[in-house]
Amino acid sequence: MTDILENKKILKTVEKILPEYCLCDNCLGRLFSKAKKGVSNEEIGIYLRKKTGFNKKIKPINCELCQGLSIEVEHFCKLILDYLKGYEFNTFLIGCKIDEDIIKKENELISFTKSEYFESIKNELNRNIGLKLEKKLDKLVNFEKPDIMVILNTSFDVITLQILSLFIYGRYKKYTRDMPQTKWFCKICYGKGCRKCNYNGKIYENSVEELVSKEIIKITKGTDESFHGAGREDVDVRMLGTGRPFVLEIKNPKIRSINLEVLKKKINSSNKDLIEIDNLRFSDRNEIARIKNAGFRKTYRVIIKSDTILNNEKLKKVSSSLQGSNINQVTPSRVVHRRTDMVREKHIYNCIVEMVEDTIAILSLETESGTYIKELVTGDDGRTKPSITEIIGSPCKVIELDVIEIKGE
Ligand SMILES: [Zn+2]
Ligand SMILES: [Zn+2]
After folding, report:
1. Fewest CB atoms within 10 A around its CB: which of 12, 284, 306, 378?
2. Which fold does the domain 166-293 belong to in CATH?
3. What is the predicted pLDDT for the residue at 295?
4. Which residues surround ligand 2, an ion (CB under 5 A)?
5. Nearest Cα to Cα of residue 183 among 221, 223, 226, 222
6. Relative to the alpha carbon of 26, which ligand is closest?
């Protein structure tokens, strides 16, 4: 204690404060906290009081700055420990909310002393509670990305938690032609339930999102979820091959250590014929942007039907015109209400004819991410150019469409 606290300026300041303010050792020491590392604020306070000859000890409860807060660390720890029961986490952070009156008094003292060494009471509490809980919980404080952020309102003993979402990456296959990727709320009631939607609140009973997340929310005891797919297929399009990448975000999970292999088996066995998931692993928020922006190339299998009889010659013309070329698509009329109306140039990597019979043909199409396949077939009243309808010279439509592969992941 003999070095920097011998500082005449500090001692002079202490002599100025103590006759004016009724401060506990902790609060006195905290005003000069940064002048001496490795000792507690209380120790600094005790030393300064002795050194300046103000020997009358002030109990924290009578301290006009902290009003007893300084000795409540143990009480706050108990409160938090109790509140965190049932939550699974590895790292945490404490954030205290301090009474306005105390902050005001603190600012008054800071400007009165002009001390450049002070530590705020908020900082001290966060630090002391954090250190104590690290030992009691055998878990670490993390400033950047804690699993749980504990916000303690010290005036009312009220705790709120900010829990880091749990992110799970995977790939899904969809085997049905009657299910959207994500929850599709009723346009009349927005999910509340009305006569129009048979009080389901939704247009489709199920979605990939719900089938995947239901069990995971149950196991993690999360409050909500958010499903992020690497693009999406239409409701009536199957997603086959190795599946489509997704990231599922579970909000406010209580349980974080889950067995993804067991989970996968459970989800797959209870949703046979509807969906199948695979490649599950833990992920983070950054991966959402990655899979959303990746622009994966896709292979489709499409069954088309023409108004006129088809033959090999007509289909050869389709594949030679499209293969390796670019098409221009104006935003399809069916989605223009929710997407920017603009022309998009898309590359067709491959167009292979698999079968032709009567008015039906089966094609395999490999296209750039974001190509609208239904419109490539129909032409969408000239909004997609060229189109299969245009090349064949009579109207064609899609009977069945499957995504066979999503490449590049
Ligand atoms: Zn105090
Ligand atoms: Zn409704």
Report:
1. 12
2. Alpha-Beta Plaits (3.30.70)
3. 86
4. 186, 188-189, 194, 196-197
5. 226
6. 1
Active site residue 234: yes
Closest-approaching ligand to the CA atom of 29: 1
Write out residues in the chain with pLDDT < 70, as ranges.
Answer: 1-5
Separation of 197 CA from ligand 2 center, angstroms? 4
Query: Which member of 99, 234, 236, 284 is catalytic?
Result: 234
Backbone angles phi, psi at 169, to 5 degrees: -95, 150
| Cα 187 to averaged position of ligand 2 atoms, centre (Å) | 7
State the amino acid at position 387 in one-letter form. Answer: S
**Cβ count near 274 (within 10 Å):** 16
Q: How confident is the model at residue 3, as a pLDDT? A: 67
Protein fold of 298-406: Alpha-Beta Plaits (3.30.70)
Spatial CB neighbours of 41, under 8 Å, sequence gap ≥ 6: 25, 26, 27, 29, 30, 33, 119, 124
For residue 200, the model assigns a pLDDT of 87
What's the 203 CA to ligand 2 centre distance in angstroms?
8
Q: What is the pLDDT of residues 75-102, one digit of tens each?
A: 999 999 999 999 999 999 999 999 999 9
In the block, which residue shows the tokens 């039907």?
305
One fold for 166-293 and 298-406: yes
Distance 108 CA to ligand 1 centre (A): 14
Q: With beta carbons less than 8 A apart as the criterion, state whether 389 and 378 touch.
A: yes
